[in-house]
Amino acid sequence: MTSREFKELAQGMGVDLIGVAPVARFALFSPEASPLAIQPQTRSVIVLGFSIPRGSLQGLEMGTAGYTLGMGIPGAVALETTYQLCRRIENEGWEATPVFQQAGDMRRQGVAVSPDKPEPNVILEFDFAAHAAGLGEIGRGKWLLTPEFGPRQMLTIILTDAELQPDEPFSGSVCDNCGKCAEACPAGALKADALHCAPLCEGEACWYPLHIESCRVCKTGISRLPYSTGSEPFRLGAACGRACVAHLEDSGKLTRAFASRFRPDEKEA
Ligand code: SF4
Ligand code: SF4
Predict the structure, then answer these.
(1) Which residue, by CA, sits nearest to atom 6 of ligand 2?
(2) Smallest CA separation from ligand 2 atom 8, residue
(3) Residue 200 predicted with pLDDT over 70
(4) 180 lines ligand 2 (CB under 6 A)
(5) Weakest mean pLDDT among 10-14, 179-183, 228-232
(6) Are 144 and 47 in contact (CB under 8 A)?
(7) What are phi and psi of 77, to 5 degrees?
(8) Which of 65, 165, 217, 230 has the most neighbouring CB atoms within 10 Å?
(9) Which ligand ends up closest to the CA of 269?
(10) Does the CB atom of residue 244 touch ligand 2 within 6 A?
């Protein structure tokens, strides 16, 4: 199976974003976050993105119905599609390991099976993987932004020993450092007057320092990642995430356009 054939297959199954990175791009990670600590034969890291409907944020925007986002987060669909794609890869004779996004605080929850192995669970850095596979960048709000959907997607990963033609790491720009995510946070959890930076496979990502403890108790629309028992929240539905959606759409940064504005009553910047 070629990279192109795999992408056509995945697109046909409804995957919105598909990128491939060679495992060498993950060399900067310790075993606790390394694909090779999950599947040692990994050659290619496939990152799949599933869009979260914009409309599922509207109940939170109205302040009347937070559960609408729960319906919009494509947990079951992403799981089923990723599973089916793994089967199709394995039909070709290559091994495929499905990996779902987990809260980072799920690391080191168990006992290492031997001194040379990391403690379970190994948790991959999905946003870094998406950058390495060419899908998007880590914005100042400390989340993945893609040119198609901004912060509105959920990711899964497939690790495979198939050597697929890789995509280039993402080199575009989505975040414009507007500070709207920080402005929107009632707890002041994002500090727009400073930056925290971390290396990528090429270059580095910088985001506003985030006081995650405030987010864990945020009442503006956080949710949990599907299938994760960790406590690190998914922040798209919170005030910070929705402010980013509104800003990126109004500034024409996203390729996915809508007939109506996300916040029709808000004055355009
Ligand atoms: S999740 Fe809540 S507390 Fe955390 S940055 Fe967003 S708005 Fe602030
Ligand atoms: S709201 Fe502005 S600064 Fe924050 S992540 Fe979005 S584009 Fe970047």
Answers:
(1) 244
(2) 175
(3) yes
(4) yes
(5) 228-232
(6) no
(7) -65, -45
(8) 230
(9) 2
(10) yes
